[in-house]
């Protein structure tokens, strides 16, 4: 059986693909890679289908030993990647012979790197996806030293470039947001959202928590629970917004002042604590 062995995981290493949309009526969020384009790129580099499962690595520290001949690629923010201790670079396909060890360092910027392996990580899917959902616990458990991950059969030829420069996450983000459905619960919602917010350490795959000047309500009371979508900007009684990411709950009772444009979510997924965010309300 084609496989790789986990030697070390860093703070958190999770198997992720592009998620399991379509189960909100069962209370199951979409999950999947928070930086989808980074996983797609890694899969392309090793010849996989874009939807193949890889590993989402939080702040580096993942180390793997090949138990077969395979090709890997690491994408996301710039990061040191070594093969048996020798730097080999990220954002390029790298061949691993059986018995060789690949390690991912800690990125200087950003949060999440993505590792793809030729054939894809072939653990059993749940509800059509191999993604780990940290809120509900659906999907494969977080990786641990000693795990052996089965791999599928290679499907395509690894594709490389002479030079493919990784993107460095910005320290200040401008995030497009569509106001509503409950923006009328807040005083001057467009200008209030457009102030400077700061990402807090309490953020995770469920949501990005922000600090700043609390948003002021103009309506009292609470709502019955309503459906929540990825990118929803919910405002709890503290007045400090949070942006729901892929593992968000499917319903919530606090008002949603707006919804972040899907194209802006990968950048938010790479936003470290201390990153500044300015929402740009759209007409």
Automatic annotation (TrEMBL):
UniProt keyword list: ATP-binding, Hydrolase, Nucleotide-binding
InterPro entries: CT_A_B (IPR003778), Cyclophilin-like_dom_sf (IPR029000), PxpC (IPR052708)
Highest taxon in the source lineage: Bacteria
Pfam families cross-referenced by the UniProt entry: CT_A_B (PF02626)
SMART domains: AHS2 (SM00797)
All copies of domain Carboxyltransferase, residue ranges: 25-283
UniProt name for this protein: Biotin-dependent carboxyltransferase family protein
Lineage: Bacteria, Bacillati, Actinomycetota, Actinomycetes, Pseudonocardiales
